[in-house]
Amino acid sequence: MADVVGFFKHFHDHVNSSLDDVTRKNFANLETNSKRIAYLSGLPLMKSYDLTPEVEKCKSGGEFPVNKRLEKARLFKDEGNREVQRGDWVKAMQLYSLSMIHMPKKETEELAIVLANRSAALNHLEQYEESLADIRRCLALGYPRHLRYKVYERRARCLLVLKRNQDAVKAFQDTISSLDEAKNLNQEKKQKLRTDAKLMLEVLNKGLVLAGNPKDPKPINKIVPKPKLPGKHNVNYPAASEAIQIDHDETKGRYASASRDIQVGETLLIEKPHSGVLLAEYAATHCQNCFAKCPIPLGCPTCPNVVFCSDQCQEVALTSYHAYECPILPLIWKSGCSITCHIALRMITQDSKQHFKELTKDLDKKPIGPYKSNDYRNIYNLVSHEGKRTKQDLLHRSHMAVFLVKLLELSGYFDTKPRETLIDIDEIKTMGVAERYRDDVELFGGLILKNIQVLQFNAHEVFELQCSKARLEQNVIKHNGDSVFVAGAVFPTLALFNHSCDPSVVRYFSGPYIIVRSVKNIKKGEEVAENYGPIFTMTSKEERQATLKDQYWFDCTCEPCQQNWPRYDQMNETYMRFRCDSGQPCPNVLPVAHDCTEFMVKCGLCQQFTNILKGLKALQVIH
User: SET domain: which residues (predicted)?
Assistant: First the structure.
């Protein structure tokens, strides 16, 4: 329930030790998630629990209450200006970015100046589209009129490099007009800028007339395009290829199989997560919305805790989940709750209160029509093993749900609009929720507790491939790459795929999208399995079975487990291994030397003979 030690552990231990036998028995008799949270949340010990000492003690996870500090923003801006004097434009750009992230929302003019400064750094770094974007932003914020000639002239120069000459003409015209308001610019410099701009206009206009007034090229779009599934989609499961079908039986539950023969390398699924959350340690370097790295970040207007890679990602977050999570994010991080618990909350905050109130009428019914990744009902109906859980397990997870419900109250979610004022420290002197939100506690507490249970078995880690500096070896460029865990997410269609210790697919990521491709030929009708973590090449059967039983509550019966396949480090190149095929059940593996001339090999376990000729022919084909 918690990844690092935070105040939640103290809260959980306190509640757990304070519950008497009668209260535990009452809780054990409750049959729904909603009733469990409503009961726990209303207990006197919840109402009297004061979080403030633990929160104040915890120095990591950001400042609470959330606050942007002008002095900090100015410090970064001044350091950026010093780096400009030294000619280090990369450091200057980074420092201006930090200044922008920490600048209070009300300081619009100062923020506009920082953005203009960053646009200058980006221009020197030849990041022309990014420089133009910052110029647009600084003008929208009311960049001082007496300084506007600077950014108009910079915009014109950027557009010239990008061969957008029609736009450059307008930018040089704006430069000339804005010079009239440049009160602090001496007459000589002003005249030189005006003369240069007029000369450029003359050259540009002549060139455009000679070229027949061609249209400007379109702005370069540096946003990574959404990956597309080649070929036809499965009509019922649109995130999957038509090569995949979802079947069901009593033992396996729902699982994926091949509807036709599948070749190695085919893309079988591309899916956007229903919900995903970036790990706290990457909040300053990666986009909160799409998980991409942010070398030129945009910030949140009201908190310094997150960054975004683009205006689009910023808008998505600020008009949905981050509008509510902004004031409570430090509490989430300081609590030490796991990424799956944060996803359980994000699954709520990303949609409106009204959306869920309407959904509750038929939550237990599976939606009719195509299986959509953005339909919460498909998540709700994934396996959660609620009936197999102990009362202590449910109690533990309910403590977390009570905490997350309290955060929803603090965020303004129950009032259907994000709060506009800072959370006062006194507001966390109780874990109880106001009586007027009783129905909300029952509804959303039940949903969050359900989410926590579902995510235990269905969430995926999102990885980023991080590569060290490339090196040249024998005319080949090489580098070492590491897959680094940066976020957690839930992919409803992929969640239907079962596990194998010898998977037939591999998965990787493009931003938030997961891409699943085949790594072996799969015949029509065969199961298409992914891997939940332990793989036979690296981990022994005993370890794999124990891990899967502990984390996912099932006994793996895949082929490597049934036949106890060896790990790579147990394989010996000096001999071959054949399964005993004597006609009677025998689990033994026969080691056969490479120089063996016999085709009939005796099994040391059942004392019968196996003809290895068939296996040798198969190896020949593979080779």
Answer: 242-533
User: What pairs with residue 592 in β-bridges?
Assistant: 576
Beta strand 307-308 pairing with 513-518:
unpaired
Residue 259 in domain: no
pLDDT band at 2 (very low <50, low <70, confident <90, very high): very low
- Residue 247 is classified by DSSP as E
| 606: DSSP letter | T
Look at residue 255 and give its three-state secondary structure: strand
Amino acid occupying residue 480: N
Q: Quote the DSSP letter at residue 340.
A: H
Nearest alpha carbon to residue 507 among 218, 239, 283, 326: 239
The number of distinct structural domains making up the chain is 3
Residues 103 and 127 grouped into a single domain: yes
Domain for residue 535, yes or no? no
Q: How would you class 355 by CB atoms within 10 Å of its CB: exposed for 0-12, middle for 13-18, buried for 19 or more? A: exposed
Domain range for 600: 572-620
Is pLDDT of 134 > 90?
A: yes
Q: Decide: helix, strand or coil at residue 355.
A: helix
Q: Within this chain, do residues 89 and 48 fall inside the same structural domain, yes or no?
A: no
What pLDDT is stored for residue 3 in this prediction? 45
536-559 residue pLDDT tens: 999 999 999 999 999 999 999 999
Q: Within this chain, do residues 394 and 308 fall inside the same structural domain, yes or no? A: yes
Q: Please give the structure tokens belonging to residue 130.
A: 């990014």
Rounded-to-integer distance, Cα 405 and Cα 443, Å: 10
Q: Are residues 7 and 108 in the same domain?
A: no
Pick the closest to residue 333 from 288, 366, 376, 297 (CA basis).
Answer: 288
At 22, list the tokens. 């009668």
Retrieve residue 553's tokens. Answer: 């509550």
Q: How many Cβ atoms sit within 10 Å of the Cβ of residue 422?
A: 13
Same domain, 281 and 312: yes
Q: Which helix (H) or strand (E) holds 395?
A: helix 391-411
C-alpha to C-alpha distances, 170 to 135, 152, 164, 201, 547, nearest whole angstrom: 15, 9, 11, 9, 65
User: Nearest CA to 322 among 340, 338, 293, 298?
Assistant: 298
What span, in angstroms and rounded, lies between the C-alpha atoms of 342 and 350?
12
Distance CA 51, CA 27 (A): 23
**Contact partners, residue 109, CB within 8 Å, separation at least 6:** 141, 142, 143, 144
Task: Let me know if residue 407 belongs to a domain.
Answer: yes
**pLDDT surpasses 90 at 161:** yes
25 and 80 in a single domain? The answer is no
- CA 248-253-256 angle, 5° bins: 60
CA torsion through residues 199, 200, 203, 204, sign: negative
Rounded to 5 degrees, φ, ψ at 412 are 95, 0
In a domain, 525, yes or no: no
Residues 74 and 184 in one domain: yes
In a 3-state reduction of DSSP, which class is residue 25? helix
**More reliable by pLDDT, 577 or 70:** 70
Q: Residue 152: which CATH number?
A: 1.25.40.10
Q: DSSP 3-state assignment of 401?
A: helix
- pLDDT given at position 602: 84
